[in-house]
């Protein structure tokens, strides 16, 4: 039986009068990359934010590695989770080195361990060492996103949450980052959850896909299962929209 990294149990969430998630119960497999796909407003990012304790469900509960996320556990759980968002979300007043190593510094890692992990990540994401003392405003979009991924991975978290991290990049840069992401999957095995509106990106980077539509699961399964047997016109439409890789 496949183990789970995240379990959602009867999750409901509303913003004002609009219900975003309707009593969802499902799990996300560990040690794979799972893409959550759907159009804007379908609830994708809210699911990720619940796993990281940033959003609290009105009903139901969320567990990460079998530990329920609540006010008492969330701080400790976040140390097991890397989080990268659209636009990189880097601290503008910190250098590349300071952004990447911030959490390790707060966790009182030794200088040697911080330096070793920093250099390992820079090499893995093909970032030039000359960037060490530069600030985010002086980096390209692709460089910023790589630095964001390095920061998310600094503590070697078993779970990486990615909220549309590549959507603001131009197509050429996105292809380069995709290739590095696939290399990353091979270099360090971990559970990854990728939120995207782009089915092409989902099938390229993930092994499992969850399709959301209006706060409900339209279909869940392996890439091959969903690609070969789309459950609805909506799923088929997502494949058509992403067919050229520029949805």
Radius of gyration: 18 Å
End-to-end C-alpha gap: 35 Å
Strand order of the largest sheet: 6-7-8-3-9-10
Number of distinct beta strands: 10
State the name of the first-level CATH class of the domain at 1-70 and 191-247: Alpha Beta
Beta-strand content estimate: 25-35%
User: How helical, in percent, are the residues?
Assistant: 25-40%
User: What is the N-to-C order of secondary-structure elements (H for helix, E for strand)?
Assistant: EEEHEEHEHHHEHEHEEHH
Structure, explained:
- The protein is of the alpha/beta class and 247 residues long.
- The chain has a domain at 1-70 and 191-247: 3-Layer(aba) Sandwich (Rossmann fold), CATH 3.40.50.
- The protein contains nine helices and ten strands.
- The protein has a six-stranded mixed sheet, with helices on both faces. It has a four-stranded antiparallel sheet with strand order 2-1-4-5, with helices on one face.
- Helix 6 links the parallel strand 7 (159-163) and strand 8 (191-196).
- Helix 3 (96-106) packs parallel to helix 5 (141-153).
Annotation keywords:
247 residues; alpha/beta; Rossmann fold; four-stranded antiparallel β-sheet; 9 helices; 10 strands; 36% helix
